[in-house]
């Protein structure tokens, strides 16, 4: 009497050196499954991705024996397409750029940095904001003030003073001294030496606060009657909506 088994053979687990690994590689990237070749993954020696598959195994495997990479799987298809055909993605540029940085694929990083989206962010906007003193710190200060005032409220507001020149900064200080409010709660941006103007900076503030998940809008702040400066020259109210 012959004994037959209906059990399917287990997928071969990877042991030892990757030099003996099949040229066909199965990957589980953040839950997304991919099949490619070892040569594709190692196309750019020195990249972090190539190093993952060079020498001794550096990756865990999932229950099916596929190499597991704990990164967003959705965007790995664009990385893989570039490795296969040198095709630079035209979709999800910001997200693919983050993945290219993680995998350290230098040629793709450089080509993405030449795209309008990344070029505009890194070379234009970021370089402008680098010239605005304490920009990042002020964004965090705005958020702290807004959160502190949000108790039992649907909305909270933060007054922002924006000055582009040293002369405006002096005038703003005079105006601030005339305001009937807690001066510590006013967040001051500027001055700066760059072409973008006040409206550009206001757009950047809104963009970066919204990027942190907050719902925000702004408008010129109108001071009380008798105020000796046009308050909207410097002061803006940023409104946080919580629900």
From TrEMBL:
Signal peptide coordinates: none
- Top-level taxon of origin: Eukaryota
A single Gene Ontology biological process assigned to it is:
protein homooligomerization
Please list the residue ranges annotated as the BTB domain: 23-120
Report the Pfam families cross-referenced here.
BTB_2, KCTD_C
* Membrane-spanning residues: none
Q: Which CDD domains match?
A: BTB_POZ_KCTD14
- Which PANTHER family does this entry report, sorted A to Z? BTB_POZ DOMAIN-CONTAINING PROTEIN KCTD14 (PTHR14499:SF3), POTASSIUM CHANNEL TETRAMERIZATION DOMAIN-CONTAINING (PTHR14499)
Q: What protein name is recorded for this chain?
A: KCD14 protein
Source organism of the structure: Jacana jacana (Wattled jacana)
In the UniProt record, the gene name given for this protein reads Kctd14
């Amino acid at each position: 009497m012959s004994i037959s088994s209906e059990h399917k053979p287990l997928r071969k687990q990877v042991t030892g050196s990757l030099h003996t690994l099949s040229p066909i590689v199965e990957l589980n990237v953040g839950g997304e499954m991919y099949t490619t070749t070892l040569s594709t993954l190692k196309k750019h020696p020195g990249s972090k991705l190539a190093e993952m598959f060079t020498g001794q195994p550096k990756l865990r495997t999932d229950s099916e024996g596929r190499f597991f990479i704990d990164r967003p799987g959705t965007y790995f298809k664009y990385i893989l397409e570039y490795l296969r055909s040198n095709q630079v993605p035209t979709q999800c540029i910001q997200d693919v750029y983050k993945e290219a940085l993680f995998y350290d694929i230098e040629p793709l990083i450089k080509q993405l940095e030449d795209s309008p989206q990344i070029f505009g962010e890194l070379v234009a906007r970021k370089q402008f904001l680098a010239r605005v003193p304490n920009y990042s710190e002020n964004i965090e200060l705005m958020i702290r003030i807004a959160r502190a005032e949000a108790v039992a409220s649907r909305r909270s507001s933060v007054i922002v003073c924006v000055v582009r020149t040293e002369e405006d900064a002096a005038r703003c200080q005079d105006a601030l001294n005339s305001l009937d409010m807690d001066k510590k709660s006013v967040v001051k941006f500027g001055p700066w030496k760059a072409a973008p103007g006040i409206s550009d900076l206001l757009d950047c503030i809104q963009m970066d606060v919204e990027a942190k998940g907050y719902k925000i809008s702004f408008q010129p702040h109108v001071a009380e009657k008798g105020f000796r400066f046009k308050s909207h020259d410097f002061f803006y109210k940023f409104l946080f909506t919580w629900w």
